[in-house]
Amino acid sequence: MAKTVEERSAILTRAVTKYLMKGWVLQSRTDEYAQLTLAAKKYGTMARLLFGFWLLLGARRNRVLMLTVTKNGKIQKKIRKA
Predict the structure, then answer these.
(1) What is the mean pLDDT of residues 14-22?
(2) pTM for this one?
(3) Cβ(40)–Cβ(62) under 8 Å?
């Protein structure tokens, strides 16, 4: 059964709140869509000096999470690297 816009917005708000508590940052939001980012972890100076080459090969990038609420009120997640 299809949910109203207000119900979908409330469902999305609950989902976004869970990710905000885990360290994600809200970038943009509508009633049915939210985009959050999570910055890559930074390593200390000594680690960069000792493992610089390894870090270059395995460098982490920021992650982007897109949450969408379907008409039925289900959350769809898509994560990609930015």
Answers:
(1) 95
(2) 0.74
(3) yes
Give the residue from 1, 81, 8, 70 showing the smallest Cα distance to 38: 81
- The residue among 80, 71, 66 whose CA lies nearest residue 15 is 66
Domain that holds residue 53: 5-81
CA distance 59 to 53: 10
- Other Cβ atoms closer than 10 A to 69: 24
What is the tens place of the pLDDT at every residue in 24-74? 999 999 999 999 998 776 656 666 566 665 556 555 678 899 999 999 999
Query: 46-68 burial, b if ≥16 CB within 10 A, otherwise e?
Result: eeeeeeeeeeeeeeeeeebbebb
pLDDT of residue 30: 93
Structural domain count of the chain: 1
Rounded to the nearest 5 percent, the helix, strand and coil shares of the chain are 35, 30, 35
